[in-house]
Write a structure and sequence with these properties.
Beta-Lactamase; Rossmann fold; 3 domains; alpha/beta
Amino acid sequence: MISNYIINYDLSKKVDMSYLQKNYILPIEKHNLYTTVVASDDLTASYLESVYNTPIKYIIYSQKDINYALENISIKQELYDLYKKSLQMNIDNEQSDILEFFDKLIQLSIIKSSSDIHIETLRESMIIRFRIDGYLETVFRFKLELFNILSSVIKLLSSMDIAQRRIPQDGRFTKNIDGHHFDFRVSILPTITGESIVLRILENNTILNDINSLGISNDNLNTIKKSIEETSGMILVTGPTGSGKTTTLYSILEKLNSGSKKIITVEDPIEYNIENIQQVNINHEIGLTFSDILKNILRQDPDIIMIGEIRDSESLHIAMQAALTGHLVLATLHTNDSISTINRLIDLNAPPYLVASTIKTIISQRLIRKLCDTCKEKVKIGNDEYYKAIGCNICNIKGYKGREVICEVLSIDNTISSYILRQEDEAKTLKYAKSIGFKTLYEDGLSKIDKGLTTPEELYRLVSCQ
């Protein structure tokens, strides 16, 4: 991978950008005897030899890989300059240069629509990766010396102990980037090679997603809207980490936030502040846990309770008791699909009769990458037609831009309740659910392919056939 190299971006300044793009070339390193260049094929080297005054050593990569490395190169060149200055010994310059480096890094991450920045130490270098549409992409590799300087800045901004490198630390800070306010949630974890820093990016003046804008199919959307009209019971949103569960919960809360109901949330941590809703942040350091808060929440006379995540038997039991006593409870749970969620609840020591009487709806979801409208191409294989991902400058050369929800929505009717009481096997429940119109995650994904929104490869990556 090109990201395996520490790229000397000073070299690319000596060549016209149009030449690099047209010929799919990126110079990466200059030695005394030769200059290393990545290219898509072996080229006549005379021009580059005259520029760098050395022989040229080519390393062959695909045009797509090189295009990606050339993306936002002017910002990368600025970051490389600041990286070199930050390593200099002049302390006065070092502080201002590293702060400018960090601001420029954040700016690039936002340009690329990143959700997280990962800054990690390796044995002999450090890497910076951005999570974009669920995928981690290595953006930079630098000398290891930069890490301690950069981590000190991040710890200071996040109100952490700058000298502590042996225990995990958490913090947050806010920055104004081009007129937009962003919250950065910071986690630092000690590793065998140093530390791993992850910054979650949250735009704190973002308008919360309307439930209609999540990409949920009409049938599923209507089922969800009908379920949140209930005044009691529990609605669960399930899926693995990073499947958009919290976003879906927030969009449901926005729909319910009419001002006529008291809504209380219990979160760890609170990601977005919502007007007219009482939000409680977990604080383990002082013993303020999910269970402690849930025990006291009912004295606040709530109509709706949102629990960030069901984590254990105790929090599940309290949540179910609240759902049983006339409250609408929304929560998330880590399970693979809606049918298996029932057994997961029983595994958490919830009595089948309580599951049958409190659970009203189970939403299981994933976030599927959407094809880039600018570069997607229709292909035909046999009798089937669908679009494939190509890659262009609009979508970071990936072929996909943005994500939306695929989901399955299981409504617990009297028949399914009786199955839960008798602890029938999942296959029987699935067969019955399908007979009344239930569509699996896979089937919902197929509809996205039919509409030209995504690809079969992306669907198969997320879910298996059902």
